[in-house]
Amino acid sequence: MEAKAKVWVLDGAGLTHDKEFEVYEQHNIDYKLTTKETLQKDLQEFGKYADAVVAQVSMHVTEELINQLENCKAIFTFGIGFNHVDLQAAEKRGITVSNLPDYCVEEVCDHTTALCLTLLRKLFAYNKKVKQGGWDPTDTAPIHRLSNSVIGLLGFGKIAREVAKRLKPFGVTIIAHDRYADEAAFKENGVKAVEFNELLEQSHLLSLHVPLTDETKNLLNYEKMKMLPTGAMIVNTCRGGVIVEEDLAQLIKEKHISGAGIDVLLQEPPNADNELLKLEEVIVTPHAAYFSAEAEEDLQVRTAQNVVRAIEGKQPHYIIPVS
Predict the structure, then answer these.
(1) What band does 141 get if pLDDT is binned at 50, 70 and 90?
(2) How many CB atoms lie under 10 A from the CB of residue 63?
(3) Residue 47: which residues within 8 A CB-CB, separation 6 or more?
(4) Could you list the active site residues?
(5) What share of the chain is helix, strand, coil (3-state, %, to 5)?
(6) Which of 77, 208, 272, 305 has a Cα at 20 to 30 A from 226?
(7) CA–CA distance, 195 with 175 (Å, rounded to integer)
(8) How far apart are CA 176 and CA 194, in angstroms?
(9) Domains in the chain with CATH codes
(10) Is the confidence at residue 19, as pLDDT, over 70?
């Protein structure tokens, strides 16, 4: 009897995989779910023989791990991000790496827009003061008309473009910086392309939409964020490592930045001593921008279908190029 193909699923966050596993069962594929605690044991008993690996973002697929995958044809990230996989090590072994870049675009755009509007209208501050017995519409000043606000987008890929579409009806001016984006994309969306420093100098609210790479890691440090106008705000729904968190906290304490909406952190879940958690001006959500019931099922099913393609000898969708 021919041996079943094997899929090794790595998940350190306890996500749901029921719909994913249904696809594997329909195609007579063996699978094993592994956590950080069982990684080494499962590697020796199952993982090293797997035809494909699916890795959630908290599970780092290092060169050391990749070199022990004796039969792997493809690695799939369980979502959009791929900085947890060593692309160069995979390429050396002839292993393709794929992500799912568009399964939660709608959710991330909605979450980003909600954070932007909440900060600009200072809803959390109002809510807190009213619950403490206050009733003064001017005690969170300054609040400015949205039509007088400039929102800057760092990165202008699919999510940033959809965020721009959602925000435009509010009358805001939108600018963006992305040296990899086609010039036509800016024109089609009515967004002005600017240089990086111009983006910082002009943005009343800066929203981040870049992957975490060597180029973007710690890109927004104290000096760069200090270039934002006094009272500016920052929204981050991409990756935590793009911002130097200690520098952001310091600039909020100095009243240069008036608020931040943060969905992603360098360490998740964060340590209790993370300064951003202690600041009233910061809204923190638990890397939740991607989430809805529909997006969760979409992620599982489409990831599994892509795995099946690879196991059947077809080229997977969304192969990540090695720079």
Answers:
(1) confident
(2) 12
(3) 8, 32, 34, 53, 68, 69
(4) 239, 268, 287
(5) 40, 15, 45
(6) 272
(7) 10
(8) 6
(9) 6-103+293-311 (3.40.50.720), 105-284 (3.40.50.720)
(10) yes
